[in-house]
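User: two proteins, same treatment. go.

Assistant:
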Amino acid sequence: MFSAMNQHKYLDLIEIHETYKDCLRIVLAEAGVSDVAPQMSSDEEPNEALRKLLNESKRIEIADNSARYEIVFDDYIAYAVTNESYAGGIEGSFEGRLARVYSESAFLNYISQATLASADYPRSFAHYGFCCLNQIIDVVSERPPTVRLLSA
């Protein structure tokens, strides 16, 4: 299902929460460029150059027919949600575009330094990343998530 998510131009985070002990549920939706550009008045934006730019811009949004994905980690070692405005640095080695599986990353390095997790305890694990419009979600887990399409 990661390959399906990677076919989209954008993903947006709809929901993230822990459903019960050590279970993480994430819902992502496909997002696309709207067909309609907003029209701002001079009252809404007095700066003419900025108003012109904004009136030519189109929003990136979720449509009623957008694909929605539920990603469930039945148990995880750690996860982090980062505001995409502050994400950056060394990406590491990964497969995928918007939904990634890392073989090397700064987050894996952090986990090895800040936790007791290792290949021996609890056992080998992987770093999964989801690049959304406004957030970057990183999850380290022993097992891959269960992913299902909620709607298309």
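Protein 2:
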Amino acid sequence: MPTTPAPAIAQPTPATQAAAPPAELSLEERLAFINAAMTVRLDEAALAYEVNTAHIPTEPVDLVDVVTIPLTPTLQPPTPYPTPVAAVLQRAYHRLQTGGWCSGALVDEDGARCMLGAIRIEARGDSVLEAGAAAMLLDATRRKFGDSVSSVPSFNDAHRSGLVPMRMLDQAADLADTHGL
């Protein structure tokens, strides 16, 4: 028996709808999209930088070591600390700024002083005040650099420039003032 093909059932063709024209975005919407896209790109760049530089050992840079201003001998400390030990440390810091820093001697041939030499001259003969300022300076350096700091002179002589020792004098003055010394 011959088979006749089944009549095709007419399938309705779906009507295609024309795509709606893109809506005009406001300036705020466009800026929000650009901000989101840039944030994603910056996050990706930051991550790539972290991954690419993770193997490089680095030490943080203290901007105090980088940013300097010229000092003149007439530069005066802004306001002296009201506590005696803090005032001695502040004056010693100022003396090193204006008179120079040295290592290996209390005073060098040019008149520059080490940290302890500056404290000694600024204590003005008061051995108790000198000892208190030196102890506060040693405490401040140990807080920053650990217990490996054995003395103020050894810390002073371990540096090739006066930037770190002078910064420690300034920090010790702040610490002494905080403790009311």
